[in-house]
Amino acid sequence: MAGFFFTAKHECEKCGKKFRKVEEFMQHQQVAHENKQYVCEKCGMGFDGMEQMRDHAKKFHSYNRMLDDRKKKSNS
User: How confident is the model over 26-36, as pLDDT tens digits?
Assistant: First the structure.
């Protein structure tokens, strides 16, 4: 069985995600990065609310480590 390859013509400068279609790329920009009040310190993904960002951090990053890093910064 041959492998499936696609050429990604559009790459997000903020997170590195790649897209074949400009429409998908533009939608990603609006949903993931534009006009978001809360931004993940680990990957730069944006969120409308703190709870959404916390859920993201728990799922994709070491949430406790992110909190530890924040505490270290505030104590400096």
Answer: 888 877 777 77
